[in-house]
Amino acid sequence: MRLVLLRHAKSDWSDETLPDKRRPLAAKGRRRAMRCATRLDERAWTPDLILTSDATRCLETLEAMGDAVEAFRTAPVILVPDFYDKTHGDEVSQAKSAKVIGKRVGVEVGLGATQPRTVMCVGHNFGFELAARSFCRSENVELKTAHAALLTARGPARSGKRAFKVIVAPLDDTALTFEVWNREIRGSTSVMFCVCDVAVCAVIDDAPPERKHYDDAWQRAFTDHKFRLEAVLNPEEPESASEIIKRVVERMIEELIDSDMSSEELLERVIAQAESVENAMSHQSRALGSGDFEIEEW
User: Fold this and answer.
1) Residue ranges of the domains in the chain?
2) Residue 50 forms beta bridges with which residues?
3) What global pTM score does this model have?
4) How far apart are CA 16 and CA 37, in angstroms?
5) Is the N or C terminus of the chain more exposed, i.e. has fewer CB atoms within 10 Å?
């Protein structure tokens, strides 16, 4: 499951007669909102469901994103006045902000097998920044305008389906690399390899716990603080090599995860293709060795 907590883009303060809630976007804010949509689309993080504050700057942020990427215009949108009333301002509390966002998302995603994979919430600081820190138990979240916290959590398992995770770490950060390795391999089929200067840990769980169709995976993730901070997206910064490598390896596994090959064979295939990924990165090529994957950014 993926949760995008997006702070609205930069607003226009030129008309001092407007109430705060009705301030529109500045031209710079519109450009950044469009860039944010493009960056999320590059990561394949376009939303299946959008919850947004009813403040004008949030609605115009979403409008600009829809002008850049169609998925942000066609996804269902739900207005949530509480995102302004209870998470906006300098004096909001972390606990209350997290409760407001978590409870409303939990209500709107519903139950059953059709729960959305990616939910985006558009709102304000400091509530959104504090809520992101609470959900993933990390203080390493700062949301400037048009920045988004990208959070993931494990969704409900389906019978007969394998689960997987890909984690990347700087190769020179040995402590982090081995900490990730030791934490993720328990009870799973896993492998660690290097692409350029990035350590990649790919983990496949052959027997994820099966849950009933009515199990509320989203609400459980909020209640137990089970989200993981994948990144804080800055629309002005290009995607890093680590982010590209992680995305490409995830795509490789997604292509193979439902095949008849064993998890060991699947990971061997990924390792075999890793060399072509490194060559593509090194030579600024658009094609990976097998020709199955094209990476526009390269």
Assistant:
1) 2-152, 163-210+238-283
2) 77, 120
3) 0.81
4) 29
5) C
